């Protein structure tokens, strides 16, 4: 019997339309895309594994490790398909998740629409008992009332329970006791906020524990089913999950804290882009990940994606912070919009073309898939414009129907605007590209950056089709389309470190800073974070310490990186100096001249990761040898506004240094790269394609 080896690794990414599989066999990559199976998501993984192990000539038993990311938790939150969940909270705070905060993202909109709370009011239960902001018990927990609540939950047909008490981040004793009391009468999962998100600000913390409880039964059932079916097919190897912060955790941890998986797929894409940036020594990069359902933009500086402690899902207003459901967990920071290949095109009441956020997904899919879809998607527009080969989509696994795309585009959009199919398809793609350009500009401005200063890295099945046009709109002169771009997130999973970030909120002013207490707290956080990492890593672990600090009275904090060493007697002076340096970097200058203005620490973070091997460095080449296409295809050209003959080049026929002059389309199994008239394409030493704007100084 063949035994598994650790140098054979498999990444599996379940997206809204496609499930991507990447298999690394001792440095050789095999990959495939299969349509996502909504009723049994694990089936698509099994189908994909069967394809890549056949191509690689290995058995399932030889796979050493499987790393998995999924949008299932995200979709369950957005589509409200989670378990019936009860919230047990402190008396007087029943409506926190509905009242939200005082922030209004649209100041003058009298018809403001906010996401409906995950848990309706009748399913929220309150109990007496109070912990103070310093962690002291102000009022004993009413255990008799909890016994009665347990009986009501047991009789109510609930599938999960969330417990969120005021100031539980400072002292979790009441939440733990409440869980023990409820568990004596309930056989359903119980999540407590002090373990899911031990951070201050009750709205975000309560909402996060509610989200965790809401998706926990579904995710636990799915992960258990996946492990069983993998073993049945002979893949009896460890399975790890990639979490929203970009590290790997065990399946057991993921089953208990599934809210950490909400942005797992996009996190893999950001790691993939960061690895490319490190390979070429690129310090300023914007990653552009466009799949079948969404498009994601992420800034990467010094070879690392930007991170945050909170993010939002299900925004009711596309680019407006505050209009979504806040999730308070460590996450790779990016902006995400409903603009994927399956996003539906439509006409609004003012006669404007719009796209998304609704997606055709894999069932029924765009009209061209021939699976029952009747509404036009972005993939239909790309097909009509000639960007896609109907006979060679997804390696020929899916035959595309051009006439079905034309009919859908005309029926839903073109006839309403008195446009022919080609003009309508161009309008749809222009709207999509402009929406993504706006999203990229907003994301850069929010982070104090100029988007045009970055090199773009484009991946995902649809991104290479749109990347050159997006660069034209953003003023970006260079774009890399890596090898394996179509399954970039799945490859990113294989690059991810075993990592976990432990957080604790403890409001401390520097005037009251006690080094001994803080050293004890950080030691506990390090033990917790390293414990999660040790479940999958046996080598060296490094820790990154961050203090989130602010001037007293401010509403939000800035991250201040610290050395991984105990605090001594000079801690206050060092912390003050580091805070002012970082404050000046964020806002231009520190606040001076106000007597008595205190500095305070709100939250501590310890991020533990295992040390990854160094990557092989490559130099970007602009190429000398021009490769002449042997075939051509009519593709709509946005510059001339009419179809034009584009050269068609198979990516596998190109060698390092080969230069393809635009306009052209470079085709491969999982995607196609459109080289517009403004760009040329050069093959790099690692197989990546570098798009270079003609006439630039690249």
From TrEMBL:
Residue ranges constituting the Hydantoinase A/oxoprolinase domain according to the UniProt record: 205-497
Q: InterPro entries of this UniProt entry?
A: ACX-like_C, Hydant_A_N, Hydantoinase_A, Oxoprolinase-like
Please report the stretch or stretches of sequence annotated as the Acetophenone carboxylase-like C-terminal domain: 529-683
Q: Which residues form the Hydantoinase/oxoprolinase N-terminal domain?
A: 9-184
Q: Which Pfam families match?
A: Hydant_A_C, Hydant_A_N, Hydantoinase_A
Protein name (database record): Hydantoinase/oxoprolinase family protein
